[in-house]
Structure formats: C-alpha cells, structure tokens
C-alpha cells in the first residue's frame, strides 16, 4: 500500500519521530513522508511511533492510498525535504 | 479531484495561509487540509497562495488524488484539526 504520513509533534520528539519514519518511508518535506509499505511494516511503524509520541500532545496522520500512488504532487515555494530516496 | 494539502510556512503567515486554504478545503489538522476541489478552483487557490507565501521560506504541497479519495485516514495521538466541515 502507499502511505502519506504527516506528523505534528512536540519539538523535543521531532528528531526521534523523523528518524523512525525514515526507516520505512521517504522523507518529502519537513513533517511529510511517503512511500510503499507492507501492511506488516505499517503496523510495526504505528506501534513504534505510539511508543515515541505523547498522545496528549502529538499527532500523526496516515493517509492510506491502498494500491495506487497519488496522481501528482506539486510543491509551491521551497522544497525543504529530502530527495535522497526518490527514484 | 481530491486534494491533500500540507503547508509549512513561517509563523507570521500561518493564519493567512490557513484562512485562504479553508475557503476551498476542509481543515484536517494543524497544517493539513483536504477535500474535493475543481480544477479551476485549485488553480485559483495556488495563485492566491503564491501571493501570500514567501517562496524562499515557505512551502506548500498539493497531493492530487484525481477522482478518488484515499482509502483510509488514521490519526494516532491528538486530533488537533477542525472537524467542522467533515460530512
């Protein structure tokens, strides 16, 4: 399945959350990551994030696009994210 | 088409950007909005945002899912966003 993940977490935990997410997904830009991921790994990622975040302060959204990637992605302004994993 | 919009802009311009985006999309959570939008309105929104943001500091991503909505959206942690427009 294809996932777009957006996190909004306390500054103290940003580095940890980003590091964890990058083990599974490609970093697009600041708080956004995306990529193909298996159902098993998605479950794992969620469990691991739940251990890192504080549920009363932080928030992570998973958009599940199932089998299909989005049709297009357009950025206006700065490209802040990493391109290291983009094929 | 269905759009997921994620913005990352300087604090000074957040209120303006959010206000503008909410004229066209539903607010999901902090810097994330989503919704059905016509091609014409999407063009308008982009043009209007380009007038508000500073391209050397700010960044807005548009994920275009074309005709289909995502399969599921899951939030772990806090639901920070507005639910006012969710049907």
Please specify the SSE layout and strand pairing.
The structure is a homodimer of 87-residue chains.
Chain A: E1 2-8, H1 11-22, E2 26-29, E3 32-36, H2 39-52, E4 59-64, E5 72-77
Helix pairs in contact in A: 1-2
What can you see in these coordinates?
Chains A, B: GO terms for molecular function: hydrolase activity; metal ion binding; RNA endonuclease activity. Chains A, B: It is an enzyme of class 3 (hydrolase). Chains A, B: It comes from Pelotomaculum isophthalicicum JI. Chains A, B: Its EC number is 3.1.-.-. The structure is a homodimer of 87-residue chains. Chain A is α+β, with helices and mostly antiparallel strands and 87 residues long. Chain A has helices at 11-22, 39-52, and strands at residues 2-8, 26-29, 32-36, 59-64, 72-77. The first copy, chain A, has one domain (2-64): Alpha-Beta Plaits, CATH 3.30.70.240. Chain A is built from two helices and five strands. A four-stranded antiparallel β-sheet of chain A has the order 2-3-1-4, covered by helices on one side. The longest helix of chain A has 14 residues, at 39-52. Chain A starts with a strand and ends in a 10-residue tail after the last strand. Chains A and B meet through strand 1, helix 2, strand 4 and strand 5 of A and strand 1, helix 2, strand 4 and strand 5 of B. Strand 4 of chain A pairs antiparallel with strand 5 of chain B.
């Amino acid at each position: 399945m294809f996932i777009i993940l957006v996190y909004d977490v306390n500054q103290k935990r940003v580095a940890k959350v980003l590091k964890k997410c990058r083990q599974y997904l490609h970093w697009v830009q600041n708080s956004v990551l995306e990529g193909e991921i298996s159902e098993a790994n998605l479950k794992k990622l969620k469990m691991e994030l739940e251990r890192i975040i504080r549920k009363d302060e932080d928030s992570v959204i998973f958009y599940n696009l199932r089998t299909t990637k989005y049709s297009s992605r357009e950025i206006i302004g700065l490209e802040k994210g990493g391109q290291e994993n983009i094929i």
